[in-house]
Structures are given as C-alpha cells and as structure tokens.
Design a protein that fits this description.
alpha+beta, 10-stranded mixed beta sheet, about 40% helix, globular
C-alpha cells in the first residue's frame, strides 16, 4: 500500500511526466498524442518495450487484444519515428552548452533466433565473436558537467537502421539502406543546427576516418577522436609515418588517472591530416592537435594511446588542450553505461514486432521514455529520502548517489506509475478546456 509521502512524490512525478511529454507531441494529431503518452507511460511503468506487456500496464477497460491492435496501428505509420526523434532532439539540444560532451556510438539489437522479423541484417556478437541476425543503432547522448564533478546525461537521439551487407538485398523494397557515415553526418548536422553548433564531439577510434575529420573540421565543430596508428601525417611540412611523428612528442605533462596509483603522461604536437580520397601531389590538409599519452602505474610506464583534437571555439594553452581532451574522452564511456542499462532494465533487445516501421517507431518512443528517466536525475536526493529502499543500500550511504544511479531511478518511476491509471477528462459547462489538465490519476 502506498503511503502519504510516496503518494505526494508520485503526484509530483505525474506532473513532471505530463510537462515533459507535452514537448514531444507537438505537431501530432490528438489520437497520436494520446498514443505517445500512453505508450511512453507503459514503457516506464512496465520497464519493457514489448507491446503486449506495455498494453498490460495501461489497465484499460477494453480487451488486451484491442489495446495491442491500437498500439500496433500507430506504430505502423510511416515517418512517425522521424517526427518523434526530431521533436526529442530539438528539446534535448536546448540543454547543450559550449562545454557539453556530445557522444555518438553505434550499438545493435541482436535477434539470434528471429526468422520472420522484417529488415534484419547481420550484427556482430562480441561475446561469441560471430555474426548474427539483428539491427544496427546509432545513438547520441550529451553529458553536462557541473560543480563537484556532478554529471547529467541527456539522451539525444537513437536511429535504428539497416546497413548493406549482401548484394542480393539491394533490390528489397521494404527496408531502407543508409551507410553509417551518412546517418552520422545527418545527425551531427541536426545537432549543430538545433544547438547553435555547441558542444564537444567525443568519438571512439571507429570514427578515425578522413571523411569524419574533414566534415567536423569544415563545420567548425569542436571534436576529440581516439586515433589509430595506421596513417601518414604531415609534420613540419614533411609527410611522416604516424609512429615516427608520435616519437617527436615531448611528454612533459602529467595528469591524474582513474585511480590513486595511475597517472597519465602526455605531450602535444600540431600535425596535418590529408583528407583526399586518393594520394595527390598537393593534398588537402586539416590542422589538428595530436595528443600522445601514456599510462603510468606505480611509477612504471605502460601502453600508449593517441587522440586527435580541435577546439575552434576555445582559447586554450597547450596543457589545457591536453587536459580537456583527456577529461572528455574519459567521460565517453558513459554511453556504454547507457546502452547496458537500457538493455538490462527495458529489455531493449526483446522488442517483438513484425514490421520494420513498427520497430523504428517503438525504438523512438523508448528513447523518449529514457529521456524522461535521465531527466529525473535532478530528483535523486528526494527519491533517496522517500524511496530509500530503492535508492540506497544503506540509508546514510549517500555516496552511492554520485555513481550511475539510473537503474535505481527506473525502479522508483516504475513503482510510482503502477498506481496511476487513465481517466476521462471532465469539462464543466462554460469553462474552457485546460491545457495542463493531467491525463493520469491515482487509483
């Protein structure tokens, strides 16, 4: 039985959810708005992205079969996913600042045993080191850092797409085909437009590509990319092998690492990267910073790693460039934690819809739900006081709240939403319809 304090906080969550979802439903018809609200509510309440289980959490008076049919009808609307993703992206990009760390990362949904789901391609199963059926994802998040190293995560967009792997699939009329780079460039362009070209793009070594570097540089984006070593660079006007250039770095700076025993020694070089698709006598060059860094554990030097960086919107010294690059890249791991949490808490890989369009729309709706979940990070101290059994292992152990706490916030939201049901709005005579009237109330 829910007590008074829990009821009061649940009402607050109810209001916050309504205000949040209103920003994501602009431009949709009234039936579509109701569908978005109900489905997103069901995802958070049931911690699931399976249509049948979402329908069960809605507790509607009609039959479960009719509820599933209604949800599937809206999920199947063409272009619905693009409108949802664009609405969410515009809302979330307002939170991006000059110092925000924007992290893109490809992920996947594995469907090892699926046979009839539409539009499947091959994805790599890292645990078994083999290729299996599934779908590819390209996700973007933004991380904002505040005082006392407080981090907030803002999910931006998740695009489910299918890359080309085999020639015979080129003639299919039922699925879309886009390369990973094209999807990446399109979303970077959207984020730059909606955020007024703010934020620092922090990318893993998979994006160490001349086209990616050229695109970010030409669009005056601040970026950090983990670099490989299989390329030639231009250093002091001469074309030199990457490894030989790295040897020229003066490793005179030292920074703290991930633990007390770990330090990072680093140096910086100004180098130029050729971005032409083919070798040329007079190549087109892009000027970037090459950061050569090395781990130092208990005063023993360990392995090297390399970063490319460019900060056209910052005026930084050599040491500050290295420090900012190392710090931002360390935060890049947050998107991996987001993927792990969504897959474990919301059964991301268990989506069971038969058409490709439904899958894309359901993925967009789930990302809207995740956006609300991560927004509730601002209430974690209040949650810890009222729902200490969800948020804390020990009542006074508040240090736990500084960690990745979203697993526990998801439990709080799911618990609170279970006591809410839909009701019909009552409109009194001669009284205008209120725009902020809530759609859910307690049973």
């Amino acid at each position: 039985m829910i007590d008074t304090k829990e009821r009061k906080l649940s009402k607050t969550l109810q209001v916050k959810f309504h205000k949040y979802i209103q920003k994501s439903i602009k431009g949709f018809t009234l039936p579509e708005q109701k569908f978005i609200k109900r489905t997103t509510f069901g995802i958070l309440s049931g911690k699931t992205c399976i249509v049948r289980q979402i329908s069960q959490t809605l507790k509607e008076e009609i039959s479960l079969k009719k509820t599933c049919k209604r949800l599937s009808y809206h999920l199947d609307k063409g272009g619905f996913d693009r409108s949802l993703s664009d609405n969410l992206l515009q809302v979330q990009c307002r939170k991006i600042t000059k110092e925000s760390i924007i992290i893109p990362d490809p992920s996947d949904i594995m469907k090892k045993y699926a046979e009839k789901m539409e539009g499947m391609s091959k994805v790599h199963d890292g645990s078994e080191n083999k290729w299996v059926n599934g779908y590819n994802l390209l996700d973007f998040i933004a991380v904002n850092e505040y005082a006392d190293n407080e981090l907030t995560i803002e999910p931006l967009v998740s695009d489910l797409s299918r890359w080309i792997y085999i020639l015979r699939d080129l003639y299919s009329n039922y699925t879309e085909y886009e390369t990973l780079k094209t999807k990446f460039f399109n979303r970077v362009n959207d984020i730059q437009v909606y955020s007024n070209n703010k934020g620092i793009y922090t990318l893993d070594r998979g994006y160490d590509d001349r086209k990616v570097i050229s695109y970010l540089y030409d669009n005056e984006a601040d970026f950090i990319i983990r670099s490989g070593t299989k390329r030639d660079l231009y250093y002091k006007g001469q074309k030199i092998c990457f490894v030989n250039v790295a040897k020229e770095a003066d490793m005179k700076y030292e920074f703290s690492g991930r633990s007390k025993s770990e330090r990072i020694v680093a140096g910086l070089l100004s180098v130029e990267i050729p971005i032409d698709p083919h070798p040329r006598k007079d190549p087109t060059l892009v000027l970037v910073n090459l950061i050569v860094a090395r781990y130092k554990i208990n005063d023993k030097l360990k392995g090297f790693f390399y970063l490319f960086s460019s900060f056209p919107h910052f005026d930084l010294s050599e040491k500050e460039i290295i420090q900012k690059s190392l710090h931002c890249y360390k935060i890049r791991w947050k998107i991996e934690e987001v993927h792990r949490q969504v897959k474990s808490d919301f059964k991301w890989e268990s989506m069971q819809v038969m058409t490709y369009q439904r899958l894309k729309t359901l993925n967009a709706l789930m990302w809207i739900a995740i956006g609300f979940l991560y927004k509730m990070n601002s209430m974690k101290w209040i949650f810890a006081k009222t729902f200490s059994y969800f948020m804390l292992d020990k009542k006074r152990r508040l240090k736990e709240l500084s960690k990745f706490i979203y697993y526990r916030i998801a439990n709080v939201i799911s618990y609170c939403f279970q006591f809410i049901k839909k009701y019909e709005k009552i409109i009194y005579q001669k009284q205008p319809k209120s725009k902020i009237q809530l759609e859910f109330q307690f049973t």
